[in-house]
């Protein structure tokens, strides 16, 4: 042990969770520790499944049994001892938010502070005449009188419609009449009009105590009126905020009035979402080149809905609608009639109303959701709030306007904010909190996010950095933070900021453990732990634990990566391209009307700082535009003028990080199409044929072979009601998922359960006699996924692993046939190096090269300098994120890109390639 106190270290002994090999570790407190290693080496098993799981288990065990009902409980990890464990907070890449209500503003509490500010100092403005609407309180009335009419004589009065008898009984005796600038005082008993101005007191505006009492009495009785004798003017001080010209009443301001998640503030039309779901013509009529007779209304082509089409055809002919010309060629009046219907036929709207009446059926609800798309709320225009809430403004802007602002824009608005001394005093603390949170968001590279951005639309990396900024603002101490690749999705420029933020957390007296591959983060770490040497069963060992200066002397994959010249180039020479796809004047989101060229049969890398418009260009514009023209997708792309060069394109595929399956029964071996071959192998065994077992018997999804007790799940669920439900291994199959007679069938002394439990590395050796199957398994290994089990539940795969499995599927489907040609195939990958070690990236680039060699076109959105250095063609966007981004800084080859001066990417790439 180093020469320090025992309590200065987190002590771990005998950790065996997942593939960890009974390891022992010391991790220093109040330091930045990086856990690194190749994919599958056990990094997450150590950081999250061991350290964090134990911290959570201890925390939950301290609670009452009632409280435990509402908290997700992690299973206790397989470890002998963890000592000196601090309260822990884990910030993972995964974005768990699925709902549409949570926004950047609400998640960071910035919007909550804005609600407080607006409830205190915002001024209601009449939406009709744009005049300020005031509501007076007794203290405000007294303050107004003392400030402007001090020392003058005045009548303090109130308006009333009460009966004369009642007012006299209350002690009032005189009434004030003001007509044509003439003031008259009469006895109340002599005045018989219904609306009266009752005199409370006559005084000089200098006696503060008497003035306060008189105004209080008048305010309780009705609207306060004050007549200034010397000036011969009558002042009106209404207790309610009502526009004197339009009669529009402003509600009482409260924080709930400005909440779009509460009925008091939410827009009644969109329920606080900012958009409404409308039926979209492009979903109902996807191919406008078809005529009505040919089936333009696709939903009516189903056999069960043929009647709707037939009655339309009959009625359309009677209505003078041509059913044999393309739908796009029909006059607008006829198109409208097709939807509204008439006396001769039922229209599409009638059909949809009929379905709405059957929404209680699940399949109807699912179908309706597929033909709707969000449309901006026509009432609140996306601001989510009632008109009453939007009446309140500060410096001419309502809270919805501020919610549309980016972090940078809101920060600038606060700096230029002009408030009265009283307003400044009231808003000082909330504004201070907001400014601090905005600073933290800028520091973690999220200055381009707008407050109204839905949390569910953030990438895993953005969501994690948002949480890091929240933790900075909380200023906790003596806490253990566990971060999962916080640099994911970050440009190298922004990585420096994240490192400073993590260092700041340790300066507060916190321990920070980071699972990371980024070289800059590793170099800045106080303590390094490398696991390995391989992945899966070959990993789980500690190959180094110590300080940075000693780490560089080691012979480990990561240490060698830090020491060597990093350039791993397959595109060392400039290539010349004749064929391009040209996207013209792309201007969606923050794109500035750019025209971009994508060469065919090349690796194109689109890069730029976070928020510069990469996804807007590649996914939301280019992919959707090409997919639309090829008839592969009907989702509308962002705005652009045109696209050229796609006449020879056969298909385009977006390979993202979405899961490959939603249930534990979904497995990599199934997704890759390998399971059927494995089942055939088992079904061909002599014993299987003798028992009459087909290949279906070896599937966990078939009742022929699955365990009837657990239905192929491998476990049974025991409801514990007030405690967490227990998932116990099935007693009949002992967690093996199959019937006993199926498990008795063996191939090379292994049953189907044992084969599905193998890693792809083990399966590669096991199926040595099956050349075709072995070749496909090897593709998975080449992409660095050899450690995954064949039957591993898809729900346990990370986003990066799921994406690489999809890449494997494409390669298995196209490359295993050596005669296949991928000319006309476009593959789009969104940050495929997430979670990959340097060695794994080499393997990934080798696979990409195989695709290019088969004449495919590969377009990658990426920040990783190793991948950018490998590109044949580079498209760089910037120079900043948000509104300051969206410009095309460069497109061309690597050699010329290194000469670009105004590009952050070029700057960091030059440093990366220095020998």
UniProtKB/TrEMBL annotation:
Residues 431-487 form the ABC transporter domain. SUPFAM superfamilies: P-loop containing nucleoside triphosphate hydrolases. Gene3D superfamilies: 3.30.190.20, ABC transporter ATPase domain-like, ABC transporter ATPase like domain, P-loop containing nucleotide triphosphate hydrolases. Keywords: ATP-binding, Cytoplasm, DNA damage, DNA excision, DNA repair, DNA-binding, Excision nuclease, Metal-binding, Nucleotide-binding, Repeat, Zinc, Zinc-finger. Its main location: cytoplasm. Pfam families: ABC_tran (PF00005), UvrA_DNA-bind (PF17755), UvrA_inter (PF17760). Residues 280-343 form the UvrA DNA-binding domain. Coiled coil: none annotated. It comes from the Bacteria. Residues 139-228 form the UvrA interaction domain. One of its GO terms (biological process) is nucleotide-excision repair. GO terms for molecular function: ATP binding; ATP hydrolysis activity; DNA binding; nuclease activity; zinc ion binding. The keyword Repeat applies. It is found in: Cytoplasm. GO terms for cellular component: cytoplasm; excinuclease repair complex. PROSITE patterns: ABC_TRANSPORTER_1. Belongs to the ABC transporter superfamily. UvrA family. NCBIfam families: uvra. This is UvrABC system protein A.
